[in-house]
Amino acid sequence: MPELPDVACFRQYIDATALHQEIAAVHAGRTDVLDGTTPQALGRRLDGRSFRATRRHGKYLFVALDDGGYLVMHFGMTGYPAYARSDHDPPEHTRLRVEFRNGHRLAYVCQRLLGHVTLAADIDAFVQEQGLGPDALSLDEADLSNRLRPHRGMVKPVLMDQSVVAGLGNVYTDEILFHARIHPRARIAGFDAGTCHALHRAMCHVLQRAIRDRADPQRMPASWLLPHREEGDRCPRCDGGIRQLRVGGRSTYVCPRCQSGD
DNA sequence: AGGACGCCCTGTTCGC
DNA sequence: TGCGAACAGGGCGTCC
Q: For a Cys staple, A167 with which of A25, A58, A96, A110, CB 3.0–4.6 Å?
């Protein structure tokens, strides 16, 4: 489920594979992943160009073109990029293929079609148009506190609101709240300075560590909630029972003994 | 404004 | 055994 750490790793992957190669052609297998553009327009824009660099904001990946402007990717729930030789079969559910003149290609794979790809001229303008808040990793403690303060509701849906903070999804929000020992249904209105401090500290720690572990759930420490996302599993901290609830319409895992504020 | 709910989409899993 | 319902969830929209 591509959230900030996953997209950060996709960025590293594209940096390591797909930069500085002339684009020969673009194939769109499914036009419904394209947002505000067409296969023809995409082909015209990318043909003869190359990728120069990447940037990330929240869950969005921006691939900079050598003549300015960006190919923007959002991965929905099941998306990922895949680079390989063009004579290899692209992965199943490849929705877009960028073919390079050197005989390799970058595939945009998205099984459930919840992601999308678009073109943008400017990152700041794109972020503004999409109504995205600041990237989660750019916030210091005071920034985070100021972003949350106007909201009165439950902390989890607010943290997942991309207009408040960009980059947090269902899984890592649960993880962050577990580390901060805050219940997902806790009311932001009741947060004191200590709560905000713990939340910020947990957010930075979890995101940075997840990126370091290549956003691979297999590599996450056993002391995390992530390997225990199942009703009735044991809390790695207190051995209490992990509970599954629905918060903001999303499946949520919590240790009721460790996490307070319900 | 917050929050419940529904929708999109597809593959897997579960229950009858 | 087999079929359909439920579920997974990022993001959006609607309604109260």
A: A58
Q: Please compute, for residue A136, the number of CA atoms within 13 A of its CA located in the half-sphere on the CB side.
A: 31
- Measured to protein CB atoms, the chain B nucleotides within 7 Å are 1-11
**What pTM was estimated for this model as a whole?**
0.95
Annotate A84-121 with DSSP letters as a single string: EETTSPPPTTEEEEEEETTSEEEEEEETTS--EEEEES
Q: Report the pLDDT value the prediction gives residue A230, as an integer from 0 to 100.
A: 87
What integer pLDDT is reported at residue A10 of this predicted model? 95
Q: Are strands A60-65 and A23-28 parallel, antiparallel or unpaired?
A: unpaired
Low-confidence spans in chain A with pLDDT less than 70:
none
Does residue A126 sit in helix, strand or coil? helix
Nearest nucleotide relative to A3: CA against C1': C10
Distance (Å, whole) CA A225 – CA A46: 42
Give me the pLDDT at residue A77, please. Answer: 86
How much is the pLDDT for A249? 87
Residues A21, A24, A27, A33, CA torsion sign: positive
